[in-house]
Amino acid sequence: MTKKKSRAISWMVLVVFSLVIFCASAFIIIHADHDCSDDKCTICMELAQCRKTLDDLGSAITGAVHITLMVCVVALMEKVIIKSRSEHSTLISLKVELLN
User: Fold this and answer.
1) pLDDT at 39 over 80
2) What does R_g of the chain's alpha carbons equal in angstroms?
3) C-beta separation of 57 from 20 below 8 A
4) Coil, helix or strand at residue 91
5) What 3-state class would DSSP assign to 80?
6) Nearest 5°: phi and psi at 74?
7) What are φ and ψ of residue 33, in 5° steps?
8) Domain limits, the chain
9) pLDDT of res. 100
10) Cα distance between residue 67 and residue 73, in whole Å
11) Per the count of CB atoms within 10 A, which of 1, 24, 77, 78 is most buried?
């Protein structure tokens, strides 16, 4: 997969997640003070589903942020370690000509 295609997919996923969060929040805000008709109110069931979706997405996003931060910290530590270990001198890095 090319870098450009991967970036496009990442943006599409971000847009979808943002749209779901926005729409669920908007539905909750619009219908928060509705008049409940009976115990099987469809609006109440939809409100419960929107709240569940927001809770699930919140947990998933939190987990993804934690994993991303851990990967970044480990990558940064590896970069520092590799850079500190690779500072040794070789004949090639010293530009020594080996003439017989």
Assistant:
1) no
2) 27
3) yes
4) coil
5) helix
6) -65, -40
7) -115, 45
8) 3-82
9) 67
10) 10
11) 24
The pTM (predicted TM-score) of the whole model is 0.52
In the numeric block, which tokens belong to residue 90?
């070789």
Amino acid symbol at 65: V
Give pLDDT tens digits for 52-70.
887 887 777 777 778 888 8
Angle at 63 between CA 23 and CA 26, to 5 degrees: 10
- Per the document, the length of the chain is 100
The residue behind tokens 């990967």 is 71
| CA-to-CA separations, 56 to 1, 6, 65, in angstroms, rounded | 29, 25, 14
CA dist 24 and 95 (Å) reads 64
Residue 15's φ and ψ, nearest 5 degrees, are -65, -45
Q: Are 20 and 55 in contact (CB under 8 A)?
A: no
Alpha carbon distances (Å) from 93 to 26, 31, 83, 87 = 62, 70, 15, 10
Instruction: Work out the angle at residue 59's Cα, subtended by the Cα atoms of residues 48 and 56, and round it to the nearest 5 degrees.
Output: 25
8 Å CB contact between 49 and 61: no
Residue with tokens 């926005």: 22
